[in-house]
Design goal:
This protein has six helices and ten strands; from the N terminus they run βββαββαβββαββααα. It is an alpha+beta fold. It starts with 7 loop residues before the first strand and ends in a 6-residue tail after the last helix. This is Cold shock domain-containing protein.
Amino acid sequence: MTDEKGLKLVSGLVKWFDPTKGYGFILNEEGGADILLHANVLRNFGRSSVADQSRVTVWMQPTQRGLQATEVVSIEPPISDGSAPIADLDNGVIEHLEALPLRPARVKWFDKAKGFGFANIFGHPDDVFLHVEVLRHSGFADLSIGEAIGIRVVEGPRGLMAAQVTSWDRGTEQGGSSLAADHLGDQVQDIKDFMAHVAE
């Protein structure tokens, strides 16, 4: 699909993306040069990073410097075998992930080298543990301090932990009511009731 400005809708796997450098590349499935994915284009989609091997659909445009993505349309996490990304999440959690409400949260801090960080759900004082493998499983490579995200939360062996991370935009597309903080107390209790076996 091409429009009059030379833009073309393409899909491909992320070869690599480095948030520090501010760019990465998408493998061109039609052959030829890789497609540049700039951090600003990714930020316009509501993300600060994307995991390697994620499938992205973008509007691409040829430029003097080569092929460049001008807009991200969708991001699908890397293909998984369906198993939980970490031992603290059993496969039952992964199978019922969509049943968990999506919560609005902000990243407190995240250290990719250490492999973890924390977020805070709006209106809820407890920290939520973020594991780097859960991020990768969700299609992220890294998170920035203060970044707004959507998270599905379970009660883990050491407290609340994210079972899935989404971009803020995706979370609101799935239904604004699921991201509302109005009934957060009831919703946190729902999470604890629904996933109580995770902590056992």
